[in-house]
Amino acid sequence: MELRLMEQFVAVAETLHFGRAAERLHMSQPPLSMAMQRLEGELGVALLERNRRGVRLTAAGEVFLAEVRQVLAGAQRAMTLTRRTARGEAGMLRLGCMGPAVAAGLPALVHGFRQQHPDVRILLEEQVSVRQLAMLRDGALDLAVVRLHGELPAGMQVRLLFRDEYVAAVPQSHPSAAKEMVRMEDMRDDSLILYPRSMGAELYDAVIAACHGAGFSPRIEQEVATKSTTLALVAAGLGVAFVPASLARAGYAGVSFVPLQSALPVVEMYGAWLAGCTNPVVERFMEYALHSAQPCI
User: Fold this and answer.
1) Residues 206/267, Cβ–Cβ less than 8 Å
2) Are 92 and 120 contacting, i.e. CB atoms less than 8 angstroms apart?
3) What is the overall mean pLDDT for the chain?
């Protein structure tokens, strides 16, 4: 049964007049009368009682009217939701993230986007960058917020979202904890907690080069993959580390964050997605993020 036929029946049922119903539907009366006869023939029941005084609904017509209204409302909802989904205003976004991006303002972006698009469900997945990129390739994420180490992976597109500088994270009892600025040579006697080179050769090599430039070879005490573990080890007095300045804004008990006078690379975090991505929410979120994150880059 066509939706158009249902709409025609509703117009007749609500006006109880073929002429007014035809006028409302922008059609002539004879085709409307024929359509109602075809509808009744298709159903095998009389929906309308016709006489000289006008038209009224039969008991079956009253039931059919209530049901048809629900069908038409459901069809309208389906069309509206489908169009909004195609525009990225509804649907789901599986969003990868990492600690520095969370500290740099990603939660505020997600909250702002949800305020504008309440029908988009965002599922956050916290993983290190390497894992996020693998999940993108496997279709387990729609969008990732990552650091790029080396060349851009094939088949992906990226846009810069956040930029941050490194600071020194030292135990609160450290001699440099109260300084306004710490130099690399001030840490020559400290154990260093560092990100594994396999997960970030650029930073790893830059730290080693900066230490050598300051006249010493670093003593690497631990290599850990996450910033939360790094800060926990620093707070326990097991060494010092270099972390994005955004982590300092969140604070960490037992750790002091001191501006660093060195040539360590700037922390750059990118939104990354597969070329040819078919989820329209990705484009919609990136448009919002690039506009809203502008002060951060």
Assistant:
1) no
2) yes
3) 90
Distance CA 116, CA 63 (A): 39
- The whole-number pLDDT of residue 293 equals 63
Sign for the CA dihedral angle at 212, 218, 220, 223 comes to negative
d(CA 29, CA 21): 8
SS3 79: helix
Strand order across the beta sheet in which 255-261 lies: 182-183, 255-261, 166-171, 241-244
pLDDT at residue 239 greater than cutoff 90: yes
Q: DSSP label at 199?
A: G
Task: List, for residues 73-108, the tens digit of each pLDDT value.
Answer: 999 989 988 888 888 888 999 999 987 788 778 999
- Rounded mean pLDDT of 67-73? 95
Q: What is the DSSP letter of 63?
A: H
Q: Hey, what domains does the chain have and what are their CATH numbers?
A: 3-86 (1.10.10.10), 91-157+269-296 (3.40.190.10), 166-265 (3.40.190.10)
Distance CA 250, CA 104 (A): 9
Report pLDDT for 248: 83
Of the candidates 182, 35, 161, 30, the one whose C-alpha atom is nearest the C-alpha of residue 106 is 161
Task: Catalogue the long-range contacts made by 47-54 (C-beta closer than 8 Å, 24 or more residues apart).
Answer: 47/9, 47/13, 48/12, 48/13, 54/16, 54/17
For the segment 175-210, what is each residue's pLDDT rounded down to a tens digit?
999 999 999 999 899 999 998 888 777 778 889 999
> Both tokens of residue 17?
């007049």
